[in-house]
Specification:
Elements (H helix, E strand, L loop, with lengths): L7 E5 L6 H13 L6 E5 L1 H10 L6 H6 L8 E6 L14 H14 L1 E5 L1 H10 L12 E8 L4 E8 L9 H8 L9 E5 L2 E6 L19 E5 L16 H20 L9 E5 L14 H25 L2
Parallel strand pairs: 1-2, 1-9, 2-5, 9-10
Antiparallel strand pairs: 3-4, 5-6, 5-8, 7-8
Helix pairs in contact: 1-2, 1-8
Length: 310
């Protein structure tokens, strides 16, 4: 296998059910012998990162194949009074500004309970103990609504942190606005609402966490064409907005590589084609084949690197 310059960092982007593709990529990279010294992720990327820290990437295939919508999405609408603001470009007509105003109000409403996800995480990870089998730095990224900034919790070889439990940090990172409730956290006498920042776009996440690394592998779940993703289906409007923001985040995160003083080689992996899967398609019949596509893409990635460096 191609030898990467060490230390090696891994950044895992979000993307809901599209994370099945990322899981396939990650599991195959690990199977081929690649290991990482630092991992960071947001949304479903944080769950895949947790799987790596606990040496559970071999279980990801079956998890996605067994996925059922009812096991993830339990309808329970609620409204949260918090200063959440979505990303908006400057300018626009009056109708555009009014539309944005109502979007912000809707974003404070969540449609589904987060209890099924909590139950899954507690059953899958919490019982594995507080120490990671791998000695690794793991950064779980969410977004603090009141601060309008990324909220990063570092776990250094174990699930211990100064302010948030491991499971709460993962849940916060996956708390997609309008889908799952925010996760509260107390810090310095203040209370914050933590959400998945991947579809917000207020503050940009970057690769500065990997300062000192000589290689960074970034696995996204979106494609540049998602900037113009068409609205389709009952959640079409949400899908279009979320896919656009994920594509913007992925590009900006990748561009931030130029600010890392250790000048690592940065490889960005993205789906080679439309996966024919929506963010909330938590259905094993769709996610299983997408996992296989990710697995094949990882094999092609490593094969191409071998050929280029002969």
């Amino acid at each position: 296998m191609f030898k990467f310059r060490r230390p090696v960092g891994l950044f895992l982007c979000g993307g809901g059910a599209l994370g099945a593709w990322q899981s396939g990529v990650l599991a195959e990279l690990v199977k081929q012998g690649l290991h990482f010294d630092a991992v960071a992720g947001f949304s479903v990327g944080s769950l895949n990162g947790a799987a790596y820290c606990y040496n559970k990437t071999g279980e990801l295939r079956q998890i996605w194949r067994d996925m059922k919508p009812d096991n993830v999405l339990r309808f329970r609408p609620r409204y949260y009074e918090m200063p959440l603001e979505l990303y908006q470009q400057d300018g626009g007509s009056l109708s555009t500004k009014l539309n944005f105003f109502f979007q912000n109000r809707l974003a404070k409403m969540t449609l589904f309970s987060n209890q099924p996800v909590y139950n899954f995480l507690n059953g899958w990870l919490a019982k594995s103990g507080s120490q990671f089998p791998r000695n690794i730095k793991f950064y779980v990224i969410s977004h603090a609504v009141e601060m309008k900034l990324p909220y990063i919790v570092r776990f250094d070889g174990s699930t211990q942190s100064h302010n948030l439990s491991f499971i709460d940090a993962l849940m916060a990172s996956c708390s997609i606005p309008m889908v799952f409730p925010p996760v509260p956290v107390e810090e310095h006498g203040r209370r914050y609402h933590l959400i998945d920042g991947g579809v917000i776009g207020i503050a940009t996440i970057n690769l500065s966490l990997f300062e000192g690394c000589r290689t960074v592998i970034m696995i996204g779940n979106s494609r540049p064409s998602d900037l113009d993703f068409p609205a389709r289906g009952p959640f079409g409007y949400f899908e279009r907005k979320a896919r656009r923001m994920l594509a913007i985040h992925t590009q900006k995160i990748y561009e931030s590589r130029v600010f890392i003083r250790s000048e690592p080689d940065v490889y960005l992996m993205q789906p080679p084609a439309d996966l024919n899967l929506n963010l909330l398609d938590f259905d094993g019949r769709k996610c299983g084949p997408v996992y296989d596509i990710g697995e094949a893409e990882a094999q092609a990635f490593l094969r191409n690197l071998e050929q280029e460096n002969r």
